[in-house]
Amino acid sequence: MNGTIPAPTIEYGMLAPMLVVFGAAILGVLVEAFAPRYLRSAIHLPITLLSLLISFVLIVWQWVEGVPTKAAAMGAIAVDGPAMFIWGTILVLAFVSVLLIKDEGHFVGAAAAVPGSVEEEQALYEGAAHTEVYPLVLFAVGGMMLFPAANDLLIAFVGLEVMSLPLYLLCGLARRRRLLSQEAAMKYFLLGAFSSAFFLYGTAMIYGYANSLDLAKIGATLGAVGGQDMLLYIGGAMIGVGLLFKIGAAPFQAWKPDVYQGAPTPITALMASGTLIAAFGALLRVFWVALGGLDWNWRPVFYGVAILTMLGGAIFAITQTDIKRMLAYSSIAHGGFLLIGVIATGSAPAQNTSALSGILFYLVAYGFTTVGAFAVVTMVRDAGGEAWHLSRWAGLGKRSPLLAGVFAFFLLAFAGIPLTSGFFGKYAVFQAAVTGGALPLVIVGAVASAVAAFFYVRVIVLMFFSDPAADGPSVVLPSRGTAAVVGLAALATVVLGVFPQPVLDLAHSAAQSLFVR
Amino acid sequence: MTTHYLVLSALLFAIGGVGVLVRRNAIVVFMCVELMLNACNLAFVTFARQNGSLDGQVIAFFVMIVAAAEVVIGLAIIVTIFRTRRSASVDDASLLKH
Amino acid sequence: MNNVPTLDDFGHDPLWITIIKAVAIFVFLMLGVLFGVWSERKLISRMQHRYGPNRAGKFGLLQSVADGLKMGLKEDIMPRTVDKVIYFLAPVILAVPAFLAFSVVPFGPMVSMFGHKTPLQLTDLPVAVLLVLATASIGVYGIVLAGWGSRSPYAMLGGLRSAAQVVSYEIAMGLSFVAVFLQAGTLSTSEIVSAQAQGGTWDVFGLSIPMPSWYVFSLLPSFAIYAVTMLGETNRVPFDLPEGEGELVGGFFTEYSSSLKFAIFMLAEYVNVFTVSAMAITLFFGGWRAPWPISLWDGANAGWWPMLWFFLKLAIVFACFVWIRATLPRVRYDQLMAFGWKVLIPVNLAWIMIAATFKAMRMPDTTRGVVLAIGAVILIGAFAIWLRFDTVNQRRREAKAAQIEAEFEQLREEPSAGGFPVPPLDLPHYHGVVPEQARRHADAKEVTSGSN
Amino acid sequence: MPWLSTLMGVSVLGALGVTLIRNDKLAKQFTLLVSLIVLALTVTMAVQFSPNGDQWQFQENHSWIPAFGVNYSLAVDGIALVLILLSVILVPIVVLASWHDAEKGRRSVRTYFSLILVLEAMMIGVFAATDVFLFYVFFEAMLIPMYFMIGSYGGPQRAYASVKFLLYSLFGGLLMLVAVIALYSIAGKNTFMLSDLIGTIQDVNTQKWLFLGFFVAFAIKAPLWPFHTWLPDAAAQAPAGAAVLLVGVLDKVGTFGMMRFCLQLFPDAAAYFTPLVIVLAVIGVIYGAIVAIGQTDMMRLIAYTSVSHFGLITLGVFAMTKGNPGAQDAGTGATLYMVNHGFSTGALFLIVGFLIYRRGSKFIPDYGGVQKVAPILAGTFLVAGLSSLSLPGLSTFVSEFMVLAGAYRLHVPATVIATMGVILAAIYILWMYQRTMNGPTAESVKTLPDLNAREKWVVAPLVALLLVFGFYPKPLLDVINPAVKDTLSSVSVTADQAAAASGVKEGK
Amino acid sequence: MQLYVPILVLAVLAAGFAVFSVSIAPFTGPKRWNRAKLDAYECGIDPTPQPVGGGRFPLKYMITAMLFIVFDIEIIFLYPWAVAFDKLGLFGLVEMVLFIVTVLVAYAYVWRRRGLDWD
Known about the structure:
The complex is a heteropentamer of chains A (517), B (98), C (452), D (508) and E (119).
Chain A lengths: L11 H23 L2 H29 L15 H21 L16 H9 L6 H17 L3 H19 L6 H33 L4 H7 L7 H19 L7 H8 L2 H26 L4 H24 L4 H21 L5 H31 E3 L2 E2 L9 H4 L1 H15 L5 H15 L3 H27 L8 E2 L4 H19 L2 H12 L5
Antiparallel strand pairs in A: 1-2, 1-3
Helix pairs in contact in A: 1-2, 1-5, 2-3, 3-5, 3-11, 3-14, 3-19, 3-20, 5-6, 5-11, 6-7, 6-11, 7-9, 7-10, 8-11, 9-11, 10-11, 10-13, 11-13, 11-14, 12-13, 12-18, 13-14, 13-17, 13-18, 14-16, 14-17, 14-19, 14-20, 16-18, 17-18, 17-19
Chain B lengths: L1 H21 L3 H26 L3 H31 L13
Helix pairs in contact in B: 1-2, 2-3
Chain E lengths: L4 H24 L30 H25 L1 H28 L7
């Protein structure tokens, strides 16, 4: 109790990008509280977009100024190369997702109203909209930024929750198919909370072992403390479970299809891109910085998990008849490919750099493509909302060749066909893995890619080579935002597929310094 | 001495975990999750005692907050579902099957 | 001042001294309840120009004893529908924490007890006040479970209301302590008392003006809020909504209509009153320290004397409870909640920030400018928000009034009502009994009680 | 002047232009124009090619993705040049031949022609790439336009066929990708340039694995027995024009890849696997021929003949290994065979396509006595068929003979068995001709019109080329021979040895 | 630990008394069975049948509970801060202002969304 507490220092400048996002989120809450209903979304949108933009600019500025080499906020948050790269990516993707979110009609007016009840009708009649979506998204984005930058297991846990909690809510806000949406929210919530409990217990065990939560300190104590290896192993395993859950790696992938399907599609887009990126960032950081000395133990496990994830995702996707579920399984499979990159790390810094930059590039490429794909999904609608069943997509190429073409292009990018971003992403990861000696894994990855290609191609077949149903879904005229999203995603997919060098360079220089220790 | 607390915490965690897996009522599942979080807290505080550092206790604070936030959000979701379905059973929520 | 206990002085008592102290506290509380019930009835009667109990014993002093005996000899009713275990446990859960809070209340300084130097306090913890709050929280379980386990609408509603009220006021109460901790720099009750031994001095123009040492003076807003929350926490008038006879019969203990179970509820309520009073004394009134004129006598704060001061203070605070009960009418439930949430909490937070700013300003190595700026920002911000809230609330109230007016207007025009507002006559019965008319329609839906 | 990029650029720009033209007819004419321009440019380039100059000419080299050591590096040697020529000659013919193919009202006509042009660019790229990675990119990317051509414009089972085609190729491609990556990282040279990579892998065991990775991809593409099952489906379902490009050019990428990559990069492994590959090739020759005999669907029949022919080409390619005195001949023959096969099978597909377009059926029993009603059609059909069975005097004979002669020097039994394929070829071609063209004229074909002017223009160049190169293959051989020699030098057989050992000098 | 023993002693004492009183109650009084007497008390009318599990009650209470959690958490942080205020100095003040402002934002939101109204 006695003794002085040195006043901590907080590098507000380094944390500014994150603080801007959180600040804007808080501002958004105030807008919710004080602005009149009819003005709210008009105020929210600029705040949200602007804050993401400012944050991005700050990151760029900081990048140009020089990447910090020391963790900020008393070692709690590491704003290093990879973190900044991940931040930038998340911000851009979040920006794009917000453009999707802004479209009317995705979110329910009164979430608590029972579907079909008087309250609901009244909310619809009044044109109520859940403008809380914007602050919630900002909070989620802030969490996504905090999670991979956390240099401390406690902060990682807080980041994990700040990221997840708003997403749980957002999942349940779909205007159409309310029950499905609510169910998705509940499943996501229960399983997410379950997994974060695992993460936390793992953290507790590691704390018991190392007497610190600082990743670098944990890394330093590996092997230095004797006799308590059991704590370390249990802790590492449980943290792994928590993180792998967020990634959606097998065998913790069960939530993904359900949640992706039930959530409002723009939110699915945000989750599929942002959450995955953030979770991978955190996974890499925790397992390199803190548990890097333990890689003899976790590497084989990850080996198995990666194989299971890739093959599981790809094979289960084949049986899907729902476009969103299919994309969810595809995201699982991609998680598996990314895990190959995690395993590709080795002892040599050069190898680590190439693996890390490969993963970073893959994340960018996949993020854009997936946002684009979900944006397309929002545009294909039936009377009851988006047309999810694959059979409804038959003949879309005839009905709306441009849209179907773009979607097919995204699918090809998912499949990793050359001249799309997906190819180089996969290539970068595979290459790192081969150099790192994980050739068998790469072969499995190639086989899984081939399997995965099957279901992507199947959708293309359906869209282009089947005749459209008479009462097929209509393709809505996209709003400017949605059109911009699709266009941007397509552009990114092309550009990254043809001239990946600039982004590769960026990823490389981000990965150059590796994680701050 | 502290081992007993750790064993207790592990036990609570296990009870919570098993509860999540076998119980069908969403609220009960949720409470089991909270039990797990509190088991973590117990472990943290125990380790703080054992290692002679205060960090563990501070962490427990943070965990409490997170748990509280989780309660708020989780209950909101579950109650909404309950209002639409008049049931909080996880089994009834089965629209999202393959 | 070596007779003032510090935290190090605790935890060395042999078990028998501990037991003696514990029994003493227990006995004190039991007697206190007996005496308290009597004095409350007596006082309130006098205030209402009545005599009050005057049959049993001198001045009716034995009235409480008589009541207690009577309760013990009454039939113990356990309604059919109750959840037996919960019904049985609820009074216990309510009563035990009420006693526990007293274990950290300091009654006096170090005294010699059978040759042992020991503080006049059962125990103290570095987090003593937290213990008080914790016991108060656990007490809520007793209330909720009593209501829940009774399985009757009145008890249920009473329990819920009570729980909501207690937790709401608990926040305000917890916040009102913060300023005290800020000043005292500790959570230990004995140390808070000793922190109030000496007031600071205020240096103005070279003059050293001694400041009063009790926190009730320096932290008056905190005390004011605490005083209100005391009433709310203990469900006393004017906040005795949970057991508001007019609307909820007995509230959460409606089904505990007789026998010793009811007595335990009564007991717990009075012990709670003593607890919050004791806390008020400890935190704001210098604890067992002698008040000003007496404190000039050196021996006032040594030996067993302080216990006397403590009891006197307790008696006065308790008397204030009674005085308030005799004076104020019961508030409406929504007013109660609104007051707790919309006034006490924000005011409290603002006050904490102001107090902290003051404190920061007096710290040696701070930039006053920064602190002042912060303070200004806080004040302006709070004021701005308040203004905005105020107008909004005003508008809302007016709108609501207009709406009600309109409703009345409409009803007045209904010829059958003869100008009086008449509720619709075809409502389903509140308790789910389907009226005859509705029963004829097969599709009529039964509405259970409590559905919203 | 960056010839090769220009060629590709013109095609791609042309493809973009086609999509912008709103009028279908104009679009077709535009496509034809673009393909002719490309042809003209290619011919101009080919004229400037000096056969005895550097191995690689018209080099272009730009850094593309330094992070992966990938260069945008194009160049042609004789082998690539003739294959590019083959492609650009076939494209205008195909465009002309497919004039009405896409007009069944289902799909956009413009897209079809645009896809052809995109495909043309990819075909040029894949033959011209001297960077392994770049080659892979084109190799895989090529699948997509073809996939859409089959899937969108093909026969009733087009979806099945196109998916099968894509997945087979993709699977092979992914295995190759793994091998490519492994090659890169094992070589450790931080580059994908073919010239830098040749000879870097010394360890035989490593070579074997990498060889397998590449070989399977090429074998699927080629298609070599037993990886051929996608071809009959794809070829039969594809529109005739697409089928020509598929079998005529795309599949050549497989054999081309074997020659360029499998042999040069992994000579020891190639030598090790030669017996196995040759056995497969010979099986392919015989199996393809026998199965072709049994077909009643003309498109499938031609597809199976291609399986047979590809067996021979592969035989030729793998006769180019260490220690074969006939390597030079075999290699030249195989290259020439690729070109000739493109023309002969192309002609066959197109003519059969015309026939089918007229009658609406692919099945041989539906025809009979067409000769009488459509003599020109029947005549050209016969010429194309005879070229397919390598009648002396037609260009295929030269190449087939060279392949067999070259292979005979080392693989006697295999060559003998493969020669039997020629006999079987006579059976399937002549029998098909007999059943469709001879005999009593079937009721349904009585009113069949003969070839119209457009169709004559389509067939004429092909027949002409078959005849010209049948009698005078020297220009081609002159271009091919030095390239094969250079290639052989990478395969560690010195050209002198090969030349000295080579007794027969056909066509010189 | 020593500090907590006295609390335990007092708890045992109090619990003993409470349990004793509650359990002695049925034996000290008379027993006169009466059907109506054993019904739940509802001012004389037939008692409402209670649904299994206690039935449902207004959501309002849950919102209060949630708000309580939020503010209780705030208090958790205020206490250590208050105690250590001297040591933290200006930094502590600034951070706490930020923290309280953040909480107040949520508070304002709830207020404006009528989460604090009870009607």
